Amino acid sequence: MDYKKQFSEAIAALHEEGRYREFADIRRHCGSFPAANHYLSDEVREIKVWCSNDYLGMGQNEKVLAAMHAAIDEAGAGSGGTRNISGTTHYHVELEEELADLHGKERALLFTSGYIANDTTLATLAKLLPGVTIFSDELNHASMIDGIRHGRGPKRVWKHNDLEVLEGQLQELDIDAPKIIAFESVYSMDGDIAPIADICDLADKYNALTYLDEVHAVGLYGARGGGIAERENLADRIDIIEGTLAKGFGLMGGYIAADAEVVDSIPSYAPGFIFTTSLAPAIVAGALTSVRHLKTSNSERERHQERARTLKQRLKNAGLPVMDNPSHIVPVMVGDPVLCKNLTDELMSRFGIYLQPINYPTVPRGEERIRITPSPLHSDADMDYLEQALVALWSEMDLGKAA
């Protein structure tokens, strides 16, 4: 086996398909988001970031930064261990209490990322509920798919947001057989939203637990930032809510919130939790401050929604193929992986606009796109410049306009 050749051929295939992943070397300007420095081999250029998942800019919030500095002074850098071995600091305990309260649940449990929260929890639920069948929306995140796969139990994949298909699958099982319906609230690539109430109705009818991924909604929706389920007064009907601290709250980490029995069962059965060093105190302290702030402040959410609506309308008016949806996500269809990569390369090199190409396997082949995430801190002038750049490149590259 020529190992080096195998790796080289795999990389070459990615380049040919236009889906080789390159990392932009950037450093955000503290206090002036979305500005950042882009580090190249021979120069440093200032750019504007249009693809960050720090949706509200809370990663630059002064109160959050102050809390992180204070935690370093009080507790030092790392947590010192796993949650079971010296790594449960008082910051972790306080944050879990705040997250449980945010979702109206008895308990919450922190993980090092949203991916780990989904993967670990879903796999562990399959072990704790022998014979459980997990019903998974076909557009669920890879972390949910991996968690279900790692649980090694029976699963059914249902057509995205199609309640008729879901009900047909539920009808095939005995009413007393264990079942979990796993789905997301906001689907981050298309920006559409699940019919949560109708799914809860089916769960009640067929005796199933509900598992809702709110990672692209927590902090952003609801009177206190509890997500779409809170906005629609449905949180009490969801058995397990999974969220992240890395998007709306601006830090890193993931969590679940549920009844005490559910949460208490995970730490002793889940290797992905047991053997992982806990989040650093400074990160947890920052997230704690962010969650508390967004429970009482709606100004960030209101401005965020206005910015998203405004940008969608402006790009539509310019004839660009914006994909309609009711959320804050602004996807613009390209439909070709090589052109999508070329487009984002040109935006960065010529205009100093950072957008990441969204190609397979994140989206199906033929549905390649750019995914724009306006924040409350993007100005009208920023939008003017983005619109002008996109219109110019769409024409130059003959990408076509909206139908």
Describe the structure.
With 403 residues, this protein is of the alpha/beta class. The chain is built from 14 helices and 14 strands. Helix content is 41%, strand content 15%. The mean pLDDT is 96. 46% of the residues are buried. The longest helix is centred in the last third of the chain and has 19 residues, at 299-317. Helix 2 packs antiparallel against helix 11. Helix 5 links the parallel strand 5 (133-137) and strand 6 (155-158). The strands form three sheets. It has a seven-stranded mixed β-sheet with strand order 4-10-9-8-7-5-6, sandwiched between helices.
* Structural class by helix and strand composition: alpha/beta
Strand content: 15-25%
* Number of helices in the DSSP assignment: 14
Low-confidence stretches: none
> What series of H and E elements makes up the topology?
HEEEHHEHEHEHEHEHEEHHHHEHEEEH
The order of strands across the largest sheet is 4-10-9-8-7-5-6
Radius of gyration: 22 Å
Number of β-strand runs: 14
Biggest beta sheet attributes = 7 strands, mixed
The end-to-end distance, rounded to whole angstroms, is: 50 Å
Proportion of helical residues: 40-55%
Shape: globular
The overall pLDDT, averaged over residues, is 96
Topology record:
Elements: H1 3-17, E1 26-28, E2 35-39, E3 44-49, H2 62-75, H3 90-102, E4 107-111, H4 114-128, E5 133-137, H5 142-151, E6 155-158, H6 163-171, E7 179-184, H7 196-205, E8 209-213, H8 228-231, E9 240-244, E10 254-258, H9 260-265, H10 271-274, H11 281-296, H12 299-317, E11 330-333, H13 337-351, E12 353-354, E13 357-358, E14 369-372, H14 380-396
Parallel strand pairs: 3-12, 5-6, 5-7, 7-8, 8-9
Antiparallel strand pairs: 1-2, 2-3, 4-10, 9-10, 11-14, 13-14
